[in-house]
Structures are given as structure tokens and as C-alpha cells.
Amino acid sequence: MAVLWRGRAPLLLASTSRVRRKLLEGAGIPVEAVAPGVDERALQHSIGPGVAAGDLAAHLAGAKAEAVARQHPDRVVIGADQVLAFEAECLGKPGTREAARRQLARLAGRSHVLHSAVALAVDGQVRGTAIETARLTLRDLDDAAIALYVEAAGEAALHSAGGYEIEGLGIHLFSRVEGEHSTILGLPLLPTLAMLRELNLLAL
């Protein structure tokens, strides 16, 4: 599959997410992952309230791509981020089991929107961004079901926005999922591939 990639070096992914890396590798793109070293919470705080969820995701994705691109100006860099929007609020990673249970209780029986953004950087600067959205609806879940999931999912429930990791046990929580699969997983592949094609980095 590497024959599809025309770059002189592997694509740099400004993320340590195994899911995002697997999405790119599944599309035949050789990838090297680099931790961007961006404090997302501090950056979000500096942006201030009132920013649309999609714009926030794009800003965070761009900051990650730019941070890595500054260190590797001769490489093509991809940054990505995802923001969960629910009732005009952006929900982050719960961090604790109790917070995960609270988030899932709020989302149960309701719909929310995932905004996934990707930013591409070349020559040390961000050259393009794209935002895709998906709409997800959780089943009606009682406290016992939520507690069972959080216990079974373990760390995965604590480090995913909303308290679920849909590519794992979290799929059991949903009644409806509307959106492109990679968008839901946090790296919208279709616009990513389109941007790489514009740079003549893909043979297909």
C-alpha cells in the first residue's frame, strides 16, 4: 500500500492517538507520530467562551500541527482534534469514573454532535484546515447500565470526550450514529486525503 504515498518521508501525525494513526495507515499512508506538546485545556481557556465547537476543534488541530511543524519544517504534518457539543456546551474528557458516569447520564437518551477537525502544515506553517461533523444518539440508559459500562471500559471511558470510546465497548451505548466513520473516530479522512492530493502526495 505504501506505493500510494509519494512523499519523501512518512507523514508526521501531531498526535499519539493509536486510532488516528491506524486510520491513516489503513489508507496506505506511512506515518510517524509525534506528541504535539500542546496544553489543550490552557489553549481552550485562552480562546475564551462563545467560540463555536467546530471552530474550537479547528483551532486546536491547527495548534497541534503548527507545534510539530515548527520542529520539523521540512516535513508534512497533520494535526487533528475533536470537540463534543451538547446543549451549547463542549464536553471534554471526564478524567474520573464519577465524571464519566455524570457525562453519560446527561447524554443518555439524547443526541449530541461531534466536530472533528484536521489541519495540514507544510514548510512549518498551517496551510489548510477542514471540519466534519457527526450526530450520535445514546440509548436510554439507567444508572446501573452506565456504571456497568464505565467499570467494563476502564481507562477508555476516562480519556474520551463524553465518557465513551465508540470504537470499543462504547458502541453498546448508542441507538443511532450518523456520520462518516473516521469523523466519529476523530480524524476526518476524506478532507485529509483531499488536502494531501492537492500537494501531489498521493498516487490515487
From TrEMBL:
Q: Where in the cell is it found?
A: Cytoplasm
List the GO terms this entry assigns under cellular component, sorted alphabetically: cytoplasm
Active site positions = D81 (proton acceptor)
Q: Which UniProt keywords apply?
A: Cytoplasm, Hydrolase, Nucleotide metabolism
Q: Classify the main location.
A: cytoplasm
- Give the UniProt record's GO annotations in the biological process aspect: nucleotide metabolic process
| EC number assigned by the record | 3.6.1.9
Determine if Hydrolase is one of this entry's keywords: yes
State the reactions this protein catalyses.
Answer: a 2'-deoxyribonucleoside 5'-triphosphate + H2O = a 2'-deoxyribonucleoside 5'-phosphate + diphosphate + H(+); a ribonucleoside 5'-triphosphate + H2O = a ribonucleoside 5'-phosphate + diphosphate + H(+)
The protein's required cofactors: a divalent metal cation
TM segment ranges: none
One function term, GO molecular function aspect: nucleoside triphosphate diphosphatase activity
Positions in coiled-coil regions:
none
Report the SUPFAM superfamilies cross-referenced here.
ITPase-like (SSF52972)
Q: Which domain of life is it from?
A: Bacteria
**So what family is this one in?**
Belongs to the Maf family.
| Family annotation (HAMAP family) | Maf
As for what it does, the entry says:
Nucleoside triphosphate pyrophosphatase. May have a dual role in cell division arrest and in preventing the incorporation of modified nucleotides into cellular nucleic acids.
This chain belongs to which protein, by name?
A: Nucleoside triphosphate pyrophosphatase
Q: Which organism is it from?
A: Enterovirga aerilata
Give the lineage. Answer: Bacteria, Pseudomonadati, Pseudomonadota, Alphaproteobacteria, Hyphomicrobiales
